[in-house]
Amino acid sequence: MFELSKDHEDFRQVVREFAQEQVAPHIAEWDRDHHFPSHLVPQMGELGLFGLVVPQEYGGAGLDEGGFTYLCLAIEELGRVDQSVGITLSAGVGLGINPILTYGSDEQKQQFLPDLVAGKTLAGFGLTEPDAGSDAGATRTRATLADGHWTINGAKAFITNSGTDRTSVVTVTARTGERENGRPEISAIMVPAGTPGFTVEPAYDKLGWNSSDTHGLTFSGCAVPQENLLGERGQGYRQFLKTLDDGRVAISALAVGLAQACLEASTEYAKTRTAFGRPIGVNQGVSFKVADLAVMVDAARLLTYKAAWLKDELEVGRRSVAEVKQAAAIAKVYSTEAAVTATRLATQIFGGNGFMEEYPVARFYRDAKILEIGEGTSEVQRMLIARGLGL
Question: Is 358 part of the annotated catalytic residue set?
Fold first, then answer.
């Protein structure tokens, strides 16, 4: 039977204390001011959060087994307090570090990973474009190779951790040619921050995740050395799809954290808010909503940590890629949709107060929707699940 170990739970408590002490007191201000708390990144690095899936030779934890589950625990606990900080870690590892760790050369790993693991820098992942979201294969960004350099032209959209004062590199997909069947050859190329021709556009004015860093990127005659190719030429699309499989489990953990926060806030409010001379929680109209929250949290958490466990088992050769892919899609679609529902229920329980920004459920409500969109929409997850069933 699957269960978390004592070491996992002890680690959860460490991250919970960090979130309560260093994040919770400032959330409302950061959210209101759309402030990215850059100072937290090295603090998370000191806790080892960016290195949980990274070998010791690059400054990581070097865990023999279970590293991905530890990462999901950290994301859940940060997301329970603030989704913006949670996605900073999730994207920093899943979309920033993992592609370099999985596909990078020894030189690329030595150049970037130690600082990324320490939280001195952040990396971004440039896949989505203005006209290529779920259909990522329709990318229009192009890179041409000449005289030992890739010259990149195009644009990316909605890229996390791409414009911070700590961003060191963004890995982007680009068309590098055409295959014999006429389909585009897509490769992944690393573009260091500050490269001429690489422009970080102004930050988006978003519905939620206001303390997360998100920008559009433009490449105009942006030239990087040929050696900045990440992995094999023409394999960028496959590489990024694999990266997204892992990222979906991490987003599921972020959703679990949000649903858990809704459950805790709603339970406390139902006990302390009175109407008609008694706590509102004695009314079935409220108590049943809280009960539904508890069911969703437990189900989402079990699906998420099953997928994380399968990912860890895959790393030591005990599970298949197909099993992990299916579990990741199932966890992602259920957990994220549960989180969106949880915020709606919590806001309803809080009534008029739930519509006020002074109460956390208003922020929860705004933060939730993107969970059903990022790392593959709910529709894409259902498509993947159906394919996994042979349909």
Answer: no
